[in-house]
DNA sequence: GACGGAATTATACGGAGGTTTCATTCGGGC
DNA sequence: GCCCGAATGAAACCTCCGTATAATTCCGTC
């Protein structure tokens, strides 16, 4: 509860150079950021870790998986932490590739402490933003899971703007049945108005076309 | 009508090196891309130009405004063309800055023709995507402009999910008046259902909170 | 001063939404 | 065989939405 970036944000450092790991750890601790350091991507992956807010600071050149390769794999592993890359022997194509892949920043060693701190601040802000976007969405997805197949059909057509009788015609059902399903959808999704349901459909990516 | 990127996509080249301008023009014409070249940012800005689809290919080092400075100014000038930067004497911080500012790519001279073509293809795709997003939005904004102040208030509350009588209470009006305004909103916005109106509100950034 | 648009409200009516109650059918699962 | 949830639907009832008609007020323009 020390900074504006929220509770328990952790900077995960992955670098094979123990001196740099220590230096970075000290730097981040000096601004009250929790820090955990690893000597390799493999060590990071094999160590149990809470999925709290944070960001990754990766060295590009490491034995085993390079920082760039590791970055490319993260999404597939379900890890969405923002990434900051650093390198002592980089080139422009490398940095461009990293930025295209979504890196927050790409720093060349030696870098100024303040540049690293700025990058981490930006990364934590991005993570916080993603998390707040995700939080509401997760509850919606969970609620959506509880819908039956029929209810999902009705959900789709209702949020597309069709009237009950039109949906009834499409699905070859009676209007009263649509009303029942529609009521179930509203209750299960915890929507208090059609407008809210439409917004949920948007957030869930349930487009009419 | 020669490529999948739509009608009349133009590559705008801005570089003070006339040899490179000619080479790039030839390259783009070889794949049926319309091309216009300029020797400086100022020349580009002072030349009348249709606002059709396209992208910009900028040299970083130019007399007058540099490619990076020019890129930074584009949004303020209402120009949203995707930017590809190229340089013969760049460094990593420069490329990172450009990518952070939204550049599609950052190429170092000499580059392979195919790399430039790939970058342009990506840039045109990004432009086409932005345009298709913008097209519908522009019509909505125009329609929204025709709404009176009262109608906009009602629009806001309706798409927030409030009932007519609740809106009437908030605005200290009778329910029938809300119904009238609501009808006007639907007609002026050309929305055929409440769901459609809610989606428009989302697209227009008219959030309840 | 006349005209028109915006805003307001009332009455009335028809259509659409939503819930409750009751009832039937169909598949699983114990 | 029995129970349960999902799906279906009919009847009744109430609320909400939407429009048409008509009227009043205010404000700015011609």
Low-confidence stretches of chain A: none
Largest interface: A-B, 24 and 24 residues
N-to-C order of helices and strands of chain A? EHEHEHEHEHHHHH
In the CATH hierarchy, what is the architecture of the largest domain in chain A at level 2?
3-Layer(aba) Sandwich
Distance between the termini of chain A: 45 Å
DSSP E strands of chain A, number:
5
Q: How many domains is the backbone of chain A divided into?
A: 2
What oligomeric state best describes the polypeptide chains here?
Answer: homodimer
Q: Work out the radius of gyration of chain A.
A: 23 Å
Q: How does the helix and strand content of chain A classify structurally?
A: alpha/beta
Strand content of chain A: 5-15%
Shape of chain A: elongated
The count of helical stretches of chain A stands at 9
Largest sheet geometry of chain A: 5 strands, parallel
Mean pLDDT of chain A: 94
Give the spatial strand order of the biggest sheet of chain A: 2-1-3-4-5
Helix content range of chain A: 40-55%
By CATH, the superfamily of the largest domain in chain A comes out as: Response regulator
> Given this structure, which CATH class of the largest domain in chain A is correct?
Alpha Beta
CATH fold-level topology of the largest domain in chain A = Rossmann fold
């Amino acid at each position: 509860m020390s900074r504006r970036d929220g509770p328990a944000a952790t900077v995960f450092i992955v670098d094979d150079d123990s001196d740099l790991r220590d230096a970075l750890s000290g730097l981040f601790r000096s601004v009250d950021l929790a820090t955990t350091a690893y000597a390799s991507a493999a060590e990071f992956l094999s160590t149990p870790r809470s999925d709290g807010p944070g960001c990754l600071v990766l060295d590009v050149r490491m034995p085993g998986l390079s920082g760039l390769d590791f970055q490319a794999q993260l999404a597939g592993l379900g890890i969405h932490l923002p990434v900051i890359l650093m390198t002592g022997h980089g080139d422009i194509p490398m940095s461009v590739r990293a930025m295209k892949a979504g890196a927050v920043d790409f720093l060349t060693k030696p870098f100024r402490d303040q540049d690293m701190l700025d990058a981490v601040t930006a990364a934590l802000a991005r993570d916080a933003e993603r998390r707040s976007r995700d939080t509401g969405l997760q509850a919606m997805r969970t609620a959506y899971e509880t819908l039956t197949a029929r209810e999902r059909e009705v959900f789709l057509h209702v949020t597309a703007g069709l009237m009950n009788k039109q949906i009834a015609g499409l699905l070859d059902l009676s209007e009263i049945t649509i009303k029942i399903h529609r009521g179930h959808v509203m209750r299960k999704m915890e929507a208090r108005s059609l407008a809210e349901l439409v917004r949920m459909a948007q957030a869930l990516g349930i487009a009419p076309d």
